[in-house]
Amino acid sequence: MFTHILAPYDGSKNADRALEKAAEMAKLTGARVTVLTVFRHHSMLEASLSMVRVSDPGRIDDAMREHAAGIVTHAKNMLIEAGVEDVRGFVRSGRPARAINEFAARHGVDLIIVGSRGLGASGDGYLLGSVSHKVTGLSKCPVLVV
Amino acid sequence: MFTHILAPYDGSKNADRALEKAAEMAKLTGARVTVLTVFRHHSMLEASLSMVRVSDPGRIDDAMREHAAGIVTHAKNMLIEAGVEDVRGFVRSGRPARAINEFAARHGVDLIIVGSRGLGASGDGYLLGSVSHKVTGLSKCPVLVV
């Protein structure tokens, strides 16, 4: 019934629970699971508001991207250990909900599985954040909120 | 992975799509499917705002309950025709999202499957309405928004 599950992942406990459900669902249906971690650009606006100027904002983006890639690898390993056969992982930058839904639309995703609250709920939402509501509202395919 | 699926149903096209997914998921997992239709009481406030006074508001509730029961029966038949073995149906009155989540908590539901938009989206939401957001926000168990 599902062939391509997208699991947006930010490393939070809720995202872990969502990932477990993604693994169960994949084993039940034989679907591929794609892990996606989205980070936000360090914008010029943020830079201008900061008390500390960074001489090279690109380095912050690089650090964010590297951190996000580590999170994706962790999630992929969890899925593989859980017995999922077809696992892929991607990092994107931008607005989380929009990036997730664009990815889903472009890659033939037919189920998105998200945690009900991400890191955003605790005020630390620079990766996924509490975007499950936005994802659900924007999505063209079914969304499982865990 | 799921044993008891709750399918809130209001007869809308989106609810039909959600019901189809509920049938697929039930056949995949062997879960029971419970159909739930919620109608709102004809309140005294509404009665006082109406240009037409109803002498016996209880009769309106009776008519609503009967209509809702017909919708539940329709949904149950759809599920049975789709090959689901364990199908039940209930009618409740009250606030849809709250009634759905209370039912889920009391009856060991481990997955709620709702349409992304109910009749409420077209301004005719006296049964389920556009409550998927509220259900998702309040639910203690996973919610699949179709």
Keywords:
homodimer, 146 residues, alpha/beta, 5-stranded parallel beta sheet, 5 helices, 5 strands
How are the strands ordered across the major sheet of chain A? 3-2-1-4-5
Mean pLDDT across the residues of chain A is 86
Main sheet summary of chain A: 5 strands, parallel
Query: Largest interface, by Cβ-Cβ below 8 angstroms: which chains and how many residues each?
Result: A-B, 17 and 17 residues
How many helices of chain A does DSSP assign?
A: 5
Shape of chain A: elongated
- How far apart the termini of chain A lie comes to 19 Å
Give the oligomeric state.
Answer: homodimer
Q: Radius of gyration of chain A, rounded?
A: 15 Å
Helix proportion range of chain A: 40-55%
Q: Structural class of the helix and strand makeup of chain A?
A: alpha/beta
Order of H and E elements of chain A: EHEHHEHEHE
Residues in β-strands, percent of chain A: 15-25%
Number of E-state strands of chain A: 5
Low-confidence stretches of chain A: 119-129
